[in-house]
Design a protein that fits this description.
15% strand, 9-stranded mixed sheet, globular, disordered N terminus, 3-stranded antiparallel sheet, TOD1_MUCI70, alpha/beta, disordered C terminus
């Protein structure tokens, strides 16, 4: 314990540092926390080791593989940028010296351009959406279940299996279910309603927005740091909250009806949330941002439990523009297989076993296979979805619509449905998702919670429940997938303390 305390002190004192060379050189953001690794282990080697062996504790992978075989990302940079990009010479630093063993995911260094240089790399033209050019959405005033035992909701409109199949048949022009099926405009009499004056604001054009949400008072607002003046001026930060969180904020912060702000965040109050489960409501802005903001080019989604600590332009340059990608998401730090993820979710009581089994069985019948290297260049079937970086073009919009439809039909565990939605689109068109390392994600978002804060939060209250949902276990529902008071994962008590503070990235929503 003493050792842990002194270690914590060292980390606290050192904090994190930035190597900022003169202008024109890249910024290497490195967290000193990487020093805590055991011998020969870095976050990268751990992620890769576990990627190739399915364990996180393997010594027989040679250094040459680890340090030559590793690319900083899974996608090659486009030729036009390779020759001169200042980050070309960047490589992960050698493993830290042997030291204390501290299992658990950690950040690793990421090479960013300066915010100004990053902005200069914003593509002049939109990424070309393969095949699909015109995506429209199904509108239905009185949606009803068609099939026996069908999941879904009035908000999502109960797409039939045929609808579902058609939504994966990529054509030039498509019309799909994508939430908000009622009402004339997302946010207006659709459920997830937003005041009319603010709806107009959401229609405005922006190159980039950052978005997040708090439902059921789960989270406290994290002020982003290290945001350039340029980004503060040009990039709106939107935080969706329900009425309950709204009154809580008014009580506990400087936020009022007049300014509607907490720090950089513009607060948007949502009325008539469609689900009783806060985790489900949270999926609406996360996956359907393109419906709420029809006129933006790029968005960064950050779960509210995380603090953004790197400038949005730097993140977009690093994870989208440099790799010529339209969609980027980190992968889970040690699970790459949907079946293993499902088992882990059951063991951790994230959702009732029967609903998880039903979902995974359904996918198995559709041909989803366990993850193996044969799927390369796909490096994982399991995302860590607490951040999403994307360009809003028809194919990415379709992807998040069909992903949302899976979440609405089955469990709210979006990491279980990610791969099936991605792979069914990829069967038809040449489109890639940049799945970067979880340790790279941890470089730009930090979980800053204290356990005490979590313990003092009340569980979300059920409100306008529209339809019966598969029962979530009381514990899973109470804590929304974050720290629990008990033995959530048996046999890991020794790690518990550490996990509480740092494992929050594992989007267990
Ligand atoms: C980026 O990717 C798109 C789609 O895969 C491709 O059409 C385009 O040529 C690529 N651009 C560069 C610069 O590599
Ligand atoms: C897109 O599709 C919709 C619905 O099929 C159609 O009404 C509209 O004219 C199409 N737009 C373009 C630009 O093709
Ligand atoms: C971000 O800001 C924090 C707090 O101001 C600072 O300690 C840290 O060094 C900065 N990180 C980076 C990567 O610039
Ligand atoms: C606001 O704070 C007061 C005093 O702490 C408390 O009595 C009241 O219930 C709070 N209201 C809300 C909506 O949290
Ligand atoms: C659910 O499944 C997990 C893992 O398979 C198991 O440990 C747990 O006991 C099951 N829970 C119930 C309520 O059956």
């Amino acid at each position: 314990m003493l050792l842990l305390l002194s270690l914590a002190f060292v980390v606290f004192v050192l904090g994190s540092y930035t190597i900022n060379k003169e202008s024109n050189s890249p910024n290497i953001h490195q967290s000193i926390e990487t020093m805590e690794f055991g011998s020969n282990e870095t976050p990268i080697s751990r992620e890769l080791t576990s990627f190739y062996t399915g364990t996180s504790n393997n010594d027989h992978i040679g250094d040459s593989f680890l340090w030559n075989g590793v690319r900083e990302s899974d996608v090659d940079p486009p030729p036009s940028l390779t020759s001169h990009h200042p980050c070309d010479s960047f490589s992960f630093p050698p493993p830290p010296p042997p030291g204390l063993r501290r299992p658990g995911p950690r950040p690793c260094p990421v090479c960013y351009l300066s915010p100004e240089e990053a902005l200069a790399h914003m593509p002049k033209h939109p990424f070309e959406s393969p095949v699909l050019k015109n995506l429209t959405y199904i509108h239905e005033e009185s949606p009803a279940k068609i099939e026996e035992g069908q999941g879904g909701s009035d908000f999502g409109g109960y797409p039939s299996l045929e609808h579902r199949t058609n939504s994966f048949d990529i054509k030039q022009s498509m019309t799909v279910h994508c939430g908000f099926v009622k009402g004339t405009k997302p946010g207006f009499q659709t459920g997830f309603d937003i005041d009319e004056d603010i709806l107009l604001e959401l229609d405005q054009f922006h190159d980039v927005i950052v978005a997040s949400a708090i439902f059921g008072k789960y989270d406290i607002i994290q002020e982003p740091v290290n945001i350039s003046e340029m980004a503060k001026k040009n990039i709106p930060f939107y935080m969706f909250v329900d009425e309950e969180t709204d009154s809580y904020l008014k009580n506990t912060s400087s936020y009022t009806d007049d300014n509607k702000r907490v720090g950089l965040w513009r607060i948007i109050v949502v009325h008539n949330v469609p689900y009783s489960d806060a985790r489900r409501n949270g999926k609406i802005p996360k996956l359907l941002l393109h419906r709420l903001f029809p006129n933006i080019r790029y968005s960064i989604w950050v779960d509210a439990k995380l603090q953004l600590v790197v400038d949005p332009y730097q993140i977009l340059e690093r994870f989208l523009w440099r790799t010529n990608s339209s969609f980027a998401i980190s992968r889970h730090y040690r699970r790459f297989d949907v079946y293993l993820e499902a088992e882990a979710n059951k063991a951790a009581r994230k959702y009732d076993n029967a609903s998880i089994d039903h979902q995974v069985e359904f996918y198995k019948k559709e041909g989803l296979t366990p993850y193996t290297e044969a799927k390369l260049p796909i490096t994982s079937d399991v995302p860590e979805g607490c951040t999403i970086i994307r360009e809003h073009i028809p194919i990415t919009n379709l992807f998040t619509c069909v992903w949302f439809n899976e979440v609405d039909r089955f469990t709210s565990r979006d990491q279980l449905s990610f791969a099936i939605a991605r792979d069914k689109i990829r069967e038809k068109v040449d489109w890639n998702i940049n799945m970067f390392l979880d340790c790279e994600r941890r470089n730009f978002v930090k979980q800053v919670y204290h356990r005490d804060v979590l313990m003092n939060m009340k569980p979300p209250r059920a409100s306008s429940r529209l339809l019966p949902e598969p029962p979530a276990s009381p514990r899973g529902r109470l804590v929304g997938g974050r720290a629990t008071t008990g033995k959530k994962i048996p046999g890991q008590r020794g790690r518990k303390r550490h996990r509480k503070v740092s494992a929050g990235g594992r989007n267990m929503r």
